[in-house]
């Protein structure tokens, strides 16, 4: 399993950054290789990805979520194994640090080779830069979910 870490500072308030991240169905707008995310309920999402010509579908469960602070998830089914946390830290009234830490277990020869070559790490770094551009250029979030999910 590989661990990928990346952080960006976005020029929006912490609430705006957090709210935009909770709009999971908009992930294809800034995540390379993500074709579709369908939010099934407050805790569960279904993902369709196509990376290097390999199409994968999998489900994730949010296991911990606290508004303006963090979202933690894990896969529950499908071809992909991952877990991670995205954290939101207020820098000042108009800036937020967004940090993603993700553990990914590549499946299949293509994914394992991509992991060894650093492709997964570069993709996540690019996704975080694109999130920064996406949220800053919008000017405001497209929605938000302010509920709380606790482990258990």
UniProtKB/TrEMBL annotation:
Q: Which InterPro entries match?
A: COQ10_START (IPR005031), ORF3 (IPR047137), START-like_dom_sf (IPR023393)
Looking at the record, the residues that make up the Coenzyme Q-binding protein COQ10 START domain are 10-131
Task: Please report a single Pfam family linked to this protein.
Answer: Polyketide_cyc
Q: Domain of life, per the record?
A: Bacteria
Q: What is this protein called?
A: Cyclase
Species whose genome carries this gene: Streptomyces viridochromogenes
